[in-house]
């Protein structure tokens, strides 16, 4: 669509609402910030994405098993993991607009603006390439260097300040960079303070301090604390993985990007336990395997890129993000982290229980190293939906809105449409629907002209429409129309189940891995 990215993003949001994919949470009470409900089609799409991930991880790997841990965990879990003390974002308020920002995001956005200036200088120079003289070259070079020095100095100051926990210095950077509030335009800032992102509640009937428990901010810890349970009962041999999907909760400060950043969201994580010293091989393996998984969806390989982390968390010895070209730019979709033995060792220390593996080949006990893959289900949903939504010009000046979802993930696999509402066509169409229903979610529609019914299914993203006409009564055949090409093909009714199965089963995706 030749639209401004922000307009296209608004279109995605309104399409989600109009076609039953996503609604604001408790909308009749004006919604709840950064919390969303999935509607009738959204719930199906989300379930199918989760299912594809689960099968690719658990069903297709002999050495990966899945669990379903509780959202509530013993509070000491979050002490051991570091979340109680360090799962913080630095926040700052603008006193005039009363808006709250993440200080690190304000600084990052300021740096991006300077980077844009560098890009503009380079573009300008490229345009004047033919008559570019020495003097021009020098002055361009000088400006680029000046901007780059500024960026380096801001980044260094910020990193030092965060390393030392010097929040006054973080504020000073915002002041020195003359960053203004995008709403009020003023530089009237409060001090910077740390804000813990975990939601807490109390367990039991008395709300005493000792009863405070947290809603898990990530699913990973449910896997770490169950490491030995699974290893022993499943007789797992290293290397092996434990996968899990489930809700996570973060009290995000900046939550303005629809389902990209939510306060209640779903993660799909896999912790892969390996022999110490082999983690880099496995890190590289999972980096490639996960990119391939994303690419198998057919959204366009150019929409993905790796972003290697230069600054590593203290427990990681390698980390990267798979970024996706969202309507608002390339942003993190999945994280792949080599987490060393940090988490298991922390849990050993805080619980006083050994979390070790006896390696029969080495004849030795050790705490395994962990490579994790962690992807947000909602972000994946947004990636698939925004890559699929298109407005197409048709022959004769007509337009159609089409949602090019991967057929295996589409909520409705086929719509059965009698050409007219009489002459026995609805009865035959219903008979076909009842047969296909055993294997797939299909729908029946007899309202409006067939052209209109096609358009409606295109917008929902239904990959196939099956039309029953008068000839069907005699030749036992129907017409299948494909959503993307709009091509129509005549097929035998007795072949329908097999054809549909071939086209929409998850197997077609799994085979590409
Ligand atoms: P970000 O830097 O965008 O806040 P993160 O690095 O904190 O993300 P992780 O803790 O690595 O994210 O979580 C793994 C994945 O979970 C992310 O790649 C993302 O897909 C998803 N995720 C994290 N926070 C949210 C959120 N608030 N809403 C939706 N998905 C999220």
Model description:
It is a single chain. Strands 3-9-10-16-13-12-11 form a 7-stranded mixed beta sheet. It has a 5-stranded mixed beta sheet with strand order 20-19-21-22-23, with helices on both faces. A 3-stranded antiparallel beta sheet has the order 5-4-6. Strand 14 and strand 15 form a beta hairpin. The chain is 39% helix and 24% strand. The chain is globular. It folds into 3 domains: 284 residues, 2-Layer Sandwich (BirA Bifunctional Protein, domain 2); 105 residues, Herpes Virus-1, CATH 3.30.40; 108 residues, 3-Layer(aba) Sandwich (Rossmann fold), CATH 3.40.50. The chain contains 17 helices and 23 strands. The longest helix has 31 residues. The mean pLDDT is 94. The chain starts with a helix and ends with a helix. The protein has 513 residues and is an alpha+beta fold. Bound molecules: adenosine-5'-triphosphate (ATP).
Largest sheet: 7 strands, mixed
Strand order of the largest sheet: 3-9-10-16-13-12-11
Bound molecules: adenosine-5'-triphosphate
- Provide the CATH architecture of the largest domain: 2-Layer Sandwich
Tell me, what's the shape? globular
CATH topology of the largest domain: BirA Bifunctional Protein, domain 2
The tally of structural domains comes to 3
Share of helical residues? 25-40%
- Kindly report the average pLDDT value: 94
The N- to C-terminal Cα distance equals 30 Å
> Number of DSSP strands?
23
Q: For the CA atoms, what is the radius of gyration? A: 27 Å
| Secondary-structure-derived class | alpha+beta
Helical stretch tally: 17
The share of residues in extended strands comes to: 15-25%
Model regions low in confidence, pLDDT < 50 over at least 5 residues: none
CATH 4th-level superfamily of the largest domain: Bira Bifunctional Protein, Domain 2
CATH class of the largest domain equals Alpha Beta
């Amino acid at each position: 669509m030749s639209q401004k990215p922000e307009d296209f993003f608004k279109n995605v949001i309104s399409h989600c609402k109009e076609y039953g994919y996503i609604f604001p949470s408790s909308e009749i009470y004006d919604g709840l910030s950064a919390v969303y409900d999935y509607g009738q089609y959204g719930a199906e799409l989300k379930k199918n994405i989760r299912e594809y991930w689960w099968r690719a991880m658990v069903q297709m790997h002999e050495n990966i098993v899945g669990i379903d841990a509780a959202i509530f965990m013993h509070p000491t879990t979050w002490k051991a993991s570091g979340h109680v003390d360090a799962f913080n974002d630095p926040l700052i308020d603008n006193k005039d607009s009363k808006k709250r920002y993440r200080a690190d995001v304000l600084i990052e956005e300021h740096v991006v603006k300077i980077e844009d200036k560098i890009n503009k200088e380079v573009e300008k120079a490229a345009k004047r390439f033919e008559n570019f003289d020495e003097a021009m070259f020098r002055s361009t070079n000088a400006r680029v260097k000046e901007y780059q020095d500024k960026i380096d100095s801001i980044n260094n100051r910020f990193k030092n300040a965060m390393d030392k926990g010097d929040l006054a210095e973080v504020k000073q950077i915002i002041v020195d960079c003359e960053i203004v509030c995008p709403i009020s335009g003023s530089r009237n800032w409060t001090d910077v303070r740390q804000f813990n992102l975990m939601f807490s509640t109390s367990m039991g009937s008395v709300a005493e301090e000792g009863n405070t428990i947290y809603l898990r901010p990530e699913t990973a810890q449910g896997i770490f604390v169950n490491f030995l349970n699974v290893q022993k009962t499943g007789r797992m041999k290293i290397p092996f993985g434990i996968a899990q999907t489930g809700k996570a909760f973060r009290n995000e400060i900046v939550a303005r990007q629809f389902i990209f950043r939510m306060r209640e969201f779903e993660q799909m994580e896999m912790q892969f336990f390996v022999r110490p010293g082999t983690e880099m091989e496995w890190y590289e393996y999972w980096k490639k395997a996960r990119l391939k998984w994303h690419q198998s969806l057919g959204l366009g390989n150019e929409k993905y890129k790796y972003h290697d982390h230069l600054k590593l968390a203290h427990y990681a010895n390698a980390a990267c993000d798979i970024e996706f070209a969202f309507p608002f730019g390339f942003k993190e979709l999945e994280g792949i982290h080599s987490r060393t033995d940090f988490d298991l060792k922390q849990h050993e220390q805080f619980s006083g229980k050994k979390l070790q593996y006896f390696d029969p080949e080495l004849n030795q006990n050790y705490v395994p190293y962990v490579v994790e893959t962690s992807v947000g289900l909602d972000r994946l949903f947004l990636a698939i939906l925004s890559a699929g939504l298109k407005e197409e010009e048709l022959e004769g000046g007509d337009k159609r809105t089409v949602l090019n979802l991967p057929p295996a993930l589409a909520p409705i696999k086929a719509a059965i449409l009698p050409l007219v509402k009489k002459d026995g066509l609805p009865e035959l169409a219903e008979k076909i629907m009842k047969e296909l229903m055993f294997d797939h979610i299909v729908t029946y529609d007899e309202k409006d002209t067939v052209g209109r019914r096609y358009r409606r299914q295109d917008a929902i993203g239904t990959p196939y429409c099956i039309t029953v006409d008068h000839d069907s009564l005699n030749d036992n055949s129907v017409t299948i129309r494909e959503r993307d090409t709009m091509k129509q093909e005549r097929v035998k009714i007795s072949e329908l189940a097999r054809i549909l199965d071939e086209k929409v089963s998850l197997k077609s995706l799994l085979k590409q891995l």
